[in-house]
Design brief:
The chain is an alpha+beta fold and about 70 residues long. It has 2 helices and 4 strands.
Length: about 70
């Protein structure tokens, strides 16, 4: 099922689109969402070709959208 959703996302997302996320298993995501009083805890921008630019604790990175399916890399 995740593969189908990812394929749909990759087919519809365009360069410059923002991707808002929330990691239900991450305490950090839960705290950010709680204190911001919003449903999202993170945002990235599509840079084209299925990659996302995002700010992380390690700095600004560009990586494949598939990383969002691998919790240990997010």
């Amino acid at each position: 099922m995740r593969g189908n959703k990812l394929a749909e996302l990759k087919a519809s997302i365009r360069t410059g689109d923002l991707l808002f996320t929330f990691d239900t298993e991450s305490l950090t995501s839960k705290l950010i969402s709680f204190f911001d009083r919003g449903p999202w805890s993170h945002c990235g921008m599509c840079s084209g070709e299925g990659t996302i630019i995002e700010a992380t604790t390690a700095g600004v990175v560009e990586r494949p959208i598939e990383v969002y399916l691998e919790r240990s890399n997010y």
